[in-house]
Write the structure tokens for this entry.
Amino acid sequence: MRKDVHNLLESREFKALVAKKAKTSIVLSVLLFATYYGFVLLIGFNKPFLAQKIGETTTLGIPLGVAVIIAAWLLTVIYVVWANTSYDPEVKRLRAQLLGK
Amino acid sequence: MPPVTDQAAGAIQTTLGQPTVPAIAFFLIIVAITLAITYWAAKRTKTTKEFYAAGRSVSAFQNGLALSGDYMSAASFLGIAGMVALKGYDGMIYAVGWLVGWPALMFLIAEPLRNLGKFTFADVVAFRLRQTPVRIAAAIGGILTVLFYTIAQMVGSGSLIKLMFGLPYEMAEIIVGAIMLAYVLFGGMLATTWVQIIKAVLLLCGVSVMMFIVLAKFNFNPGELYTAVAAQYGQGALEPGGLITNPIDAVSLGLALMFGLLGLPHILQRFFTVPDAKAARVSVLYATGFIGYFYIIIPIVGFGAAALIGREVITSIDKGGNMAAPLLAEFLGGTPFLGFIAAVAFATILAVVAGLTLAAASSFSHDIYVHVIKGGSATEQEEVRASKIATLLFGIVAVLLGILFKGQNVAFMVGLAFAIACSANFPALTLSIFWKRFTTAGAVWSILTGAFLAVGLIIISPTVWEDVLNNPKGSALFALKNPAIVSMTASFLVGYVVSLLTREETAEQKFEDEKLRTYLGVGAE
């Protein structure tokens, strides 16, 4: 068992799985950071941009704030869809490979 | 009991502050249902796995609601609605910050946490390190976080219940303590989870109804609502104001809110109640959806209160604006709707304090009693008994601290709890999951650095030094309102450097097992 575990962890497939997971997590985290801190820094450095009117009185800042929340939620949807379709089947296969022996 | 309205607010009649029949009736119904659930849960709560983790029987959807329940406190419901009512768009900026930690929680730690942990987040930090020092350090970080969060909740709840029901402050503290202890002591995690679920559903429904009636008054056109707000308070109410003046301060607060979530013990403990990593992941999807929806509609409630009730009336009842949502409820639906919203706010307080108490008790009994005092070899019965004693003690301490801090400005304590969580708990947790070379010494120093730096820097920051200790403006030694950007970075650096200076071969060898569990869930409990 010990040796099997070691071989599995050193296998190309397991390393590819770890790399794939890291890549997805990092890309989505960077998108989340860019969205939220982009919004915060926009407020910090360019208030007039957010204060411009897009309706009678409605400012651009209002839909933008809502958009940040929706974008954050959509990122979680992307992650779940990715994990369910691309990550889980691979995990299942590698698990079976190890425990099936 | 005289009504709280004073002369300035003479134009509006409110029963706020009086124990009305609908308020008491709704409150008693909620308490009766939750105690019935506790009775049902008590019969299913015998083992430690049941007490700490609801037997890992909670579904992803249920856990999503329970996570939302833990997170949507009375402070965020009443506080953010009030902030939007009084400060306009700035309140909305603040609301956005509370959501963005959730996706990060999903991408970075939800699944490893579920696969590696048993009952507490310290299980994960200590997975391949030396148990005693790491458990003690993690318990310090975890309990400090929970303690400050609890003080803020207890003090807030005493004042809120006094404002809404007219109950004396001390009486409110004792009622909260007693009912919450009944949930946790007898029903453990299963009862606490269902209390959270019920409260989350009631809160989401209540706020949705308020939003719907507000929008109906403006022909379902938010633009008309904003125009009404701008007509009374000027266009400035819809523009960014004074909240973010220093971008570094804003980023530091943002870091605390985002990564603090990844270090809140009562939130992390919820991930041990679901059956597997997939359920953990999906539960964050639900939680993010519910909480995001909540923070999108709360500003509409806040703007509605500003337009329909008026800032003058709101501040005449509570300077901080906390009564904006209850006043709006009374205006929209009369005494019965106010009673409903007041009862929901009360239930919210009970549920959040119950979750915090369970997290603190788990840390005392599972981390300190079992792993430090008993060297990891306590029997099932001993551990269950220890956890119940710890629950009782923490509950009593919470009530006493609530009474002790009566009338104090404790708003900073929520920020402090998030600062400690992101500086002490989060770095050690992630380094332990992802970095092979992480050592016991690295973990202990990282946690202690983060915890004490966060506490120390916040004391000499404007938030406490000037606003709480009443020192002159500009005299604070540390310029930022929230220390996260410094204390979290320092904690990571210390963890990294100390680990490189020490070497722990057993920890490196066990990293293989950890990886197997992190990614494939092999051996997960």
Observations:
- Chain B touches chain A through 52 residues (CB under 8 Å).
- The longest helix of chain B spans residues 324-373.
